Each structure stands twice: as structure tokens, then as C-alpha cells.
Amino acid sequence: MFDKIKNLEKHHQFLASLIVGIGLVSLWRGIWGLMDLYIIPENYLLSYVFSTVFGIVILYLTHKQLS
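Below the sequence we write its predicted C-alpha cells.
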């Protein structure tokens, strides 16, 4: 995919990067919203702590797997 973007003209590279960036931000916004709705919605503090610990565990396991 990156090779295809490299071969585009400069203004097309910018447009492709902008579209990918908007897609990533939209994905994050959707995931964040779903987490707010479904992970302990009545207790924000516990929800945030759970989400943080869950994220750290995922990052730790993927780092361990890739190292």
C-alpha cells in the first residue's frame, strides 16, 4: 500500500494520507464510544481503570510476542 502511495503525485499523496487519517480517527472515535457504552457505563472511574489496564496488557503481550 505504501508503495502505491509513494508512486502518486504529491497532491494525491496528501489526499490519500488525509483520507487514511480521517479513517483512523473515525475508527478510534467509534471504538471509544462503544467502550463508553458497554464497559461499566455506570461507573466511569472503574471503566477508565479497566480500559487502561486492558490496553496495557494488550500492548505488553504484543510487544512480548514481537520481541
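Helices lie at 2-6, 10-38, 44-66.
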